[in-house]
Structure formats: structure tokens, C-alpha cells
Amino acid sequence: MSTRLVTLCFDANDPLTLARFWAATLQWEIDNEADEEIGLLPSDGTPFEILFLPVPDAKTTKSRIHLDLVSNSEEDQRQMVGRLVALGARRVDIGQPSDADYVVLADPEDNEFCLILRGDFFATTDLIGAIVYEPANASVGHFWSEATGWPVVYDQDGDTAIRAPNGRGPFITFGPASGGPKAGKNRLHLDVAPPPGGDQDVEVDRLIELGAQRIDIGQGDVSWVVMADPDGNEFCVLTPR
Q: What is the model's pTM?
């Protein structure tokens, strides 16, 4: 039985400020501003929440996981850039071509994300087009497909993509594989959980058989299990829910 994708998590020095930026960007609702960990509730049918977790360390390297947000036209893209810069984003150069049809921005804690034009691939997504793992080996897409039960919907030229079985919501894409080695803990990670009545230990064993491994990031005695996928990207297995 597959796990369920529950949460996309951001490490944050100031979770509330970052949550407010992304709530305004996505037009999602903040669950409770008084919590130490700040959650965003989707308003568009996205099948997971976003959670901002307090950490002391600042971001130091380019993210290996980022969001692609979808604009409907070049004019829409220009307007989105202006709106997001006004909210606290900034343009960044990560080596993208000068004539690229996408715009790279960073949020208030320097997490990169892209504004892309919709096109055929993203024709049926909402504002979040994809969670992007880059660099990533294409095989990691197959790992996450087996882990979550999301089918592989694209597998060409070293890139893979998976999507929820109902064909709605964002993709998760993997590739290309080229890029520098992973340096330190990712600032973004996924949380998965067995369904109600499931067994966390059984699920952890299943994920290990698929190629994941348990890791220690100093989490101590907690109810979740910290793991890494075959590319070393951290994720957490929560208790059944």
C-alpha cells in the first residue's frame, strides 16, 4: 500500500513571514499564525499542504527542490513578476539563458522558484505547475511513483514526471541529472504518511526495499521517521493519517 503525500515543507528562519509571502503568492490560507510551525491550506484542490518549519541556519546553496508556478501568457507572467516582487520576491540569476521564456525569482529567504508559461504540459494544472527535483536521476521519479502511488506520466530523455492518479494538481518532476553534488540538508522536503489503519514501520521497510534509507539529521526522539530517497533527498514518514 502506498503512502500519501501530505506536506511540502520549507525550512525557514522566519516561518510566519515566509508563510505570509507564499499565502499571498498562492492565495492559500494560513492555518494558524500562532503556531511555531506555520501551515498553509490549499484553496485550489492541491492534494497537499505547505508547512514552514523553524530552523536556525540560513540558506547557503541553490535549492535542489523548487516550485514552478504557471503563468497563462507573457503578459500574465510580467504582471505576476511585478506582484511577487512587490510581495518580497526578487529576480535571481542561476545561469538561465538570457532569452529564457521563464523567470527565476527567489522568495524572502532566497528559495528559488520559476514562473513558466503554461504550454501543453501544464495545460491542466493550477498555479503550482510542479515540484521540481533538479538535478535528479530519472530513476528517482520511479522511486517516488512507487512510494506514493502517483503514476509516471512522462519519461523521456532522462527526465521523469509523476502526477496524482486523478490527473489533477501539480506534477513532481525529476531531472536533468547534471549538476553539482548535494551539499547539506535540502531546505525543502516532502512528508508522506500511511493511510488510516496503516503501519508506519511496515511502510518504512517498504521504502527501504525501494531504495530509500533511514538517516539521522539530529531529529532526536520524534514520531516521524527521517529518510533519504536514492538521490539523498530527505523526506519524512509520518504516522498514519
A: 0.96
